[in-house]
Amino acid sequence: DFHDRFDDNNEPGDAIDVYKGSQLWKSMADSPNDDQPEFTSNGRDLVKQLIAGFGFRVTGCYPDTNASFVSGTKSVLVTAKDPNGVQILVSSLNEEIGSE
Length: 100
What we know:
Elements: H1 2-5, H2 18-28, H3 46-54, E1 57-62, E2 73-79, E3 87-93
Antiparallel strand pairs: 1-2, 2-3
């Protein structure tokens, strides 16, 4: 399997050779796709990824959706279903007033 073939001889915590692992993974695939674009984290919606990938939910936001003022930032609180679980506060600049 992959782990047995990817013998990187690293100690725990050492960096791994990502390129070597990627090449090995492609060689093991039934139909390797060399046209696959490189992964990029830019331009991805973190909140959507948390909701779709981990089943998190938005449990709070600021400013409130009915607020009568405009804030320079927008924030949402994203939490796990477990009331004692992970809580992540995601904030970003408000693009509606970013150019003013």
